[in-house]
Design goal:
The complex is a heterodimer of chains A (90) and B (394). By secondary structure, chain A is of the alpha+beta class. Chain A has 2 helices and 5 strands. The longest helix of chain A is centred in the last third of the chain and has 14 residues. Chain B is of the alpha/beta class and 394 residues long. In chain B, the strands form 4 sheets. In chain B, strands 2-1-7-8-9 form a 5-stranded parallel sheet. Chain B has a 4-stranded parallel sheet with strand order 4-3-5-6, with helices on both faces. The chains are: A alpha+beta (90), B alpha/beta (394). The structure holds iron/sulfur cluster.
C-alpha cells in the first residue's frame, strides 16, 4: 500500500483524460494519472503507482529497481499485484 | 551461516561499509532511525545491519500506517460496518489488524460485509454498482495514499454519488517524527527519511528536524545501496558538524514534492486537533479529516461513531517497537504468542511492520548473524578503521 508499484503506460484513454492503461508485470489495468499530468505522460513512460494513482514519473532503470525491491518482499507484493489485478476502476 | 540474501552490488556495499566505518569517531555511538516500514524491510531482508560497524544502530520508526492504527478505530470501523445498509471497503493490509473483538475477517463471519479493494477508486465503482447500499471506504495511510482518497472524494462529488463515504484515518508523518524527537526515551543522531511519502510532501517539511533539532535527515531510496549511501551521507554530515536535509532519492523525490497531490489534499481535508496513534498516544495535528464542505462524504458525520478508546493488549509492546525503544525480538511475545499468523500487535500484521519484517526473514538470532558476517565484512571494516586512524581515508 505504501510502496509504489512501477507500471508502463501503454495507452491514454481518450474519453477519460485522467486515466491511462498501464502494464504492471503483465497485468494491464486503468489507473489515474491526473496527479502527474503536468509532467506530460504518454505511452512508453513509466510511473510509480500507489493504490491506483500515479504519484511520480520515473525512468525505466528506476522502474526495474523498484520491481526488484517489490519482488524481494515476496508475498505482500504478490497480494498487492493480485489486488491490482482485481481492480476495476472503470 | 548466513540468513541474509546476497544482493546485487554486494561488493559496492562492502566498500560503502568500509567508508562508513571510517567515519566513526572512536568511542562514539550512533543511532539512526529509519522512519519508513519499506526501509525496515530492506534492512532486514538484506541484513544491512551486518554491513555497519557496531557503533551504528538502526532503530525502526513509526512509518507503517497499519501499525499505528489504534484498536479503537478498528472497533469504530466495525461498528459502522454493522449497519445493515453499509458495505465497507478496505485495503487488504487492514483486514487482519486486530480490534478489541477481532478483525475484519472475524466480523465478516458474523454480520458485516467488508471487502478488500486495491484503490479507493474501486470503492467508488462499487458504490456506483450498488445504489441500494451505502459504501464506506476505510481510508488509511500516510501521504502516499492520502492524495488518492482526496482525488476519489473529488470525483464522487463531481459525479454526484450519494452512497459513498470515507472513514478517514489518514495520518501525517511529520508530527510523529516530532513526537519521537520530543520523547525522552530515545536519543537519535539522525534520520533516514521516508522515500515514497516524500514524493508527495517533498523535502522541505523536514527542515525543522535539521534546523530546530539539529538532526540530519537523508531521504532515501529502497535498494540496499540506497540505504547504505544514506547512512554514509548522515555520517559525513555528522563528521562535518552539519545537520541538513539531503535527498539521496532525487531520482524519484522532487524537492518540492507533488504540488498537485498536496493541493487536492488541502482542498478536501484539514488537520484534526489530535489523533491517537498506537503506542505513541495522542499526537496533536497528526491526522486528517474531511473538510466541512465534503461532510456528505464523511462517514464520521453520516454515522454515529462511538470513538471508544481501547487499551492495547497487556502483552503487546508495539508502542516501544514503534518508538524504536525496543527491537522486535525483545518483545516478550515475539515469535511465540505473536506471529504473522496470529498477530497480537499491529507490527506483526503488515509486511512493512518491524516485527513482521523481522519474523519473515527468520532472523531470530541476530547476534549470531552479526558475528558470522563480521567475519565477512569485518576485515574490510577493520582495515578501514586502521586507514582512518592514519588519516588517509575520508
Ligand atoms: S511481537 Fe507482536 S505484540 Fe510484540 S511488539 Fe511485535 S507486534 Fe507488538
Amino acid at each position: 500500500m505504501c510502496l509504489g508499484i512501477p507500471g508502463e503506460v501503454i495507452e491514454l484513454l481518450t474519453d477519460r483524460p485522467d486515466l491511462a492503461k498501464v502494464d504492471v508485470g503483465g497485468v494491464k489495468r486503468a489507473i489515474n494519472i491526473a496527479l502527474v499530468a503536468e509532467e506530460g505522460i504518454g505511452p512508453g513512460d513509466w510511473v510509480l503507482i500507489h493504490v491506483g494513482f500515479a504519484l511520480s514519473k520515473i525512468d525505466e532503470a528506476e522502474a526495474k529497481a523498484a520491481m526488484d525491491f517489490l519482488e524481494s518482499i515476496g508475498k505482500a507484493y504478490d497480494d498487492e499485484i493480485a489486488a491490482l489485478r482485481d481492480s476495476r476502476i472503470i | 551461516m548466513r540468513f541474509v540474501d546476497e544482493f546485487r552490488d554486494a561488493e559496492k556495499a562492502k566498500v560503502l561499509s568500509a567508508k562508513i566505518a571510517g567515519l566513526c569517531e572512536p568511542g562514539r555511538e550512533y543511532k539512526f532511525m529509519e522512519v519508513c516500514g519499506g526501509h525496515t524491510h530492506t534492512i532486514y531482508k538484506h541484513g544491512l545491519e551486518d554491513y555497519l560497524p557496531e557503533a551504528i544502530t538502526l532503530v525502526h520508526g513509526p512509518g507503517c500506517p497499519v501499525c499505528v492504527i489504534p484498536m479503537g478505530r478498528i472497533d469504530d470501523a466495525i461498528h459502522i460496518a454493522r449497519r445493515p445498509e453499509v458495505l465497507m471497503t478496505s485495503f487488504g493490509d487492514m483486514m487482519r489488524v486486530p480490534g478489541s473483538g477481532g478483525n475484519f475477517f472475524d466480523s465478516n463471519a458474523e454480520d458485516t460485509d467488508i471487502r478488500m479493494v486495491y484503490s479507493p477508486l474501486d470503492s467508488l465503482k462499487i458504490a456506483r454498482q450498488n445504489p441500494d447500499r451505502q459504501v464506506v471506504f476505510m481510508a488509511i495511510g500516510f501521504e502516499t495514499t492520502t492524495p488518492s482518497t482526496a482525488m476519489t472524494i473529488l470525483r464522487a462529488a463531481e459525479e454526484g454519488i450519494e452512497n459513498f463515504s470515507v472513514f478517514c484515518n489518514h495520518i501525517t508523518i511529520i508530527p510523529a517524527i516530532k513526537a519521537i524527537l520530543d520523547s525522552p526515551d530515545l536519543r537519535l543522531d539522525g534520520f533516514i527519511g521516508p522515500g515514497h511519502v516524500s514524493t508527495v510532501i517533498g523535502c522541505r517539511p523536514y527542515e525543522f528536524i535539521a534546523g530546530g533539532y539539529g538532526k540530519p535527515l537523508v531521504v532515501a531510496g529502497f535498494e540496499p545501496l540506497d540505504i547504505l549511501r544514506s547512512i554514509h551521507m548522515l555520517m559525513v554530515q555528522l563528521k562535518e558538524d552539519r545537520s541538513e536535509v539531503e535527498n539521496q532519492y532525487s531520482r524519484v523525490v522532487p524537492w518540492e514534492g507533488n504540488l498537485k497531490a498536496l493541493r487536492v489534499i488541502g482542498e478536501t481535508m484539514e488537520l484534526r486537533p489530535y489523533f491517537e496513534w498506537r503506542g505513541l498516544g495522542f499526537i496533536s495535528h497528526s491526522a486528517l479529516r474531511l473538510r466541512e464542505q465534503y461532510a456528505s462524504f464523511d462517514a464520521e458525520v453520516k454515522y454515529d461513531v462511538p470513538g471508544v478508546r481501547v487499551a492495547d493488549p497487556k502483552a503487546c509492546q508495539c508502542g516501544e517497537v514503534l518508538k524504536g525503544v525496543l527491537k522486535p525480538w525483545e518483545c516478550k511475545v515475539f515469535g511465540t504468542a505473536c506471529t504473522p499468523e496470529t498477530p497480537i500487535g499491529t507490527c506483526m500484521v503488515s509486511p512493512e511492520g518491524a516485527c513482521a519484517a523481522y519474523h519473515n526473514f527468520g532472523r531470530f538470532t541476530r547476534t549470531r548473524v552479526r558475528e558470522a558476517s563480521i567475519a565477512t565484512v569485518g576485515e574490510l571494516t577493520a582495515s578501514a578503521r586502521r586507514t582512518t586512524a592514519e588519516g588517509t581515508l575520508r
